């Protein structure tokens, strides 16, 4: 498969991703839902951001629009200096494949493939050779070396999520999105997954954006963006589990 040339691969000083005046409306008339109302937010290169907010506040919708999995009703999304609304379907597929990684709450592994085959699947589909050194780094950092020949059913939930993380990181994407990536994990496995996402930002200058309900998970981030009723209502820099919890309580009483 040939690589699709995308404008803006070397993003310079542009944020790694941004949303400008993003709105997303579902339905019409009485049943209309404003999932996003005029959301503008930027994500710097090498920055780890947690998106938090009550159920139904628009977190997943925002993440899916940022990652090109869903389209907004109005406003713009930019990855590097590539505006997603300007892309053809083919270019969008190429951008998602080459520059974006995803980790979902439900792992989404292929049951018939081994851990290693799952990790390299997106690269295989894209016809790309894995960077062996990078792959080794990711596998070792996630403690998966002695699990590579196992199928998902032979792995614990934490191990499966680490495989999903390795799959997201294997192609060295500029930006990694996680939709409640630790939602199904115990605290030890959560710590391992969040640790590798932290390392992706610190050591490899990748941008990480996760949705979470967990103040402890959010404490691994550089910044928390709080959503309520489809709008950004607050930011918190250098969060700890305690400051996040305090802010959540304050926001509930507003
Ligand atoms: N396909 C859809 N059709 C209609 N309404 C939708 C659709 N998807 C989401 N919504 C609505 O949009 C709003 C935002 O949903 P979203 O899933 O982004 O919230 P969330 O903050 O991620 O919630 P949760 O924490 O419960 O996962 C909600 O009111 C939801 O009911």
TrEMBL record:
Xref: SMART domains: AAA (SM00382)
One of the record's GO molecular function terms: ATP binding
Keyword field: ATP-binding, Nucleotide-binding, Transport
Coiled coil region boundaries: none
Gene3D superfamilies, A to Z: P-loop containing nucleotide triphosphate hydrolases
Domain ABC transporter residues, every copy: 17-254
Protein name, as recorded: ABC transporter ATP-binding protein
Organism: Rhodococcus sovatensis
């Amino acid at each position: 498969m040939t690589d699709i040339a995308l404008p803006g691969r070397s993003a310079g000083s542009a944020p790694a991703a941004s949303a400008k005046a993003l709105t997303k409306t579902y339905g019409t008339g009485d049943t209309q839902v404003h999932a996003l109302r005029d959301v503008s937010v930027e994500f710097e290169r090498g920055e780890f951001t947690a998106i938090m907010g009550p159920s139904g506040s628009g977190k997943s919708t925002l993440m899916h629009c940022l990652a090109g999995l869903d389209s907004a009703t109005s406003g713009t999304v930019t990855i590097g200096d590539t505006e997603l609304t300007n892309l053809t379907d083919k270019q969008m597929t190429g951008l998602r494949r080459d520059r974006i990684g995803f980790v979902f709450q439900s792992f989404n592994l292929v049951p018939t493939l081994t851990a290693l085959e799952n990790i390299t699947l997106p690269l295989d589909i894209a016809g790309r050779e894995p960077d062996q050194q990078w792959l080794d780094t990711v596998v070792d950092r996630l403690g998966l070396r002695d699990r590579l020949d196992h199928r998902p059913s032979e792995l614990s939930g934490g191990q499966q999520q680490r495989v999903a993380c390795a799959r997201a990181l294997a192609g060295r994407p500029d930006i990694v999105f996680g939709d409640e990536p630790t939602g199904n994990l115990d605290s030890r496995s959560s710590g391992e997954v969040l640790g590798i996402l932290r390392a992706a930002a610190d050591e490899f200058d990748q941008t990480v954006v996760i949705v979470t309900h967990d103040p402890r998970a959010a404490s691994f981030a550089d910044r928390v963006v709080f959503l309520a009723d489809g709008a950004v209502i607050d930011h918190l820099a250098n969060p700890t589990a305690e400051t996040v919890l305090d802010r959540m309580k304050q926001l509930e009483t507003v």
